[in-house]
Amino acid sequence: MNWRDSGYALTYVGLAGIVFATVIGLEYAPTIKACTGGGCFGAPEAYRILYLHVPFAWCSFLSFSVLFYGSIMWYLKRSEDAWVYFQSGSDLGLIFGLGVITSGPIWASAEWGTPWDWGDIRLNSFGLLSAIALFLVYSRRSQPDTPATRDTLSAIGLFGFALVPITAGATHWWNTTHPPLLVIESGEKVGMDSEIRTLLLLNFAIMCVLFVGFLLLSNKRYRLAA
Predict the structure, then answer these.
(1) pLDDT band at 188, cuts 50/70/90?
(2) What pLDDT, on the 0 to 100 scale, is given for residue 164?
(3) Any bridge partners for residue 39, and if so which?
(4) Using CA atoms, how far apart are residues 47 and 49, in angstroms rounded to an integer?
(5) Does the pLDDT value for residue 11 go beyond 90?
(6) What is the pLDDT of residue 108?
(7) Least confident of 36-50, 53-67, 160-174
(8) Which H or E run includes 39?
(9) Do 84 and 226 contact (CB within 8 A), yes or no?
(10) Cα–Cα distance measured from residue 129 to residue 94, given in angstroms and rounded to the nearest whole number
(11) Count of CB atoms situated within 10 Å of the CB of 79
(12) Structural domains of the chain sorted by starting position, each given as residue range(s) with its CATH number in brackets
């Protein structure tokens, strides 16, 4: 089996797994406590969307890590292979970023009564991160493919990756409306039992299979086009 076949296989397995994970999250996952020591949920059943939202978010960070690698290697090597990773990273950052900013507002609308909190640092920093991915994808397709263009876009890609730790740590460093990193926080604090945590991690593993499949297919496509 070559890399292209592996990419297709992993993509199909990942997509099937996402369907399975969605059904499990919506129909069979345990309920979450309405009130805990950390406060009360306005719509506790809405938490089920997080079985997709959280894996989307973590895989988006993986995507921006690929973008970071491609940007750095372009400056160091100035090779087509480095640019392949840059292109794949920006594409995947946009795909998984859209998954985050689509699923997140569904939960926020039920829990907060509004799909977006413009005063929340995590939400706005991730929104900017997704906007950077969109800009990079659009610019690659609309601007001449020259070393100068690649230098400029790589610099923007590095700036985008700098937002990843800010976004990830926002709920710990600042007061935000967004809930903390649920899997790492203690179960008693957020009313999350071990079964919910296990399902979240399982869904993340499934999403990673899809991520790797997309990455293999994307890299192959851009190498053939180089």
Answers:
(1) very low
(2) 93
(3) 36
(4) 5
(5) yes
(6) 87
(7) 36-50
(8) strand 39-40
(9) yes
(10) 9
(11) 12
(12) 3-34+46-225 (1.20.120)
How far the first Cα of the chain sits from its last, in Å, is: 23
Number of H helices, E strands in the chain: 7, 2
46 DSSP 8-state letter: G
Chain mean position to CA 220: 22
Exposure of 216 in the CB half-sphere (CA atoms within 13 A)? 19
| The two structure tokens encoding residue 44 | 């506790």
Distance of CA 70 to the CA centre of its chain: 18
Residue 45 structure tokens: 């059943």
Give the SS3 label for residue 155: helix
CA–CA distance, 223 with 159 (Å, rounded to integer): 25
Rounded CA-CA distance 208/18 in Å is 10
DSSP state of 176: -
Helix (H, G, I), strand (E, B) or coil at 35: strand
pTM: 0.88
Structure tokens at 71: 């940007």
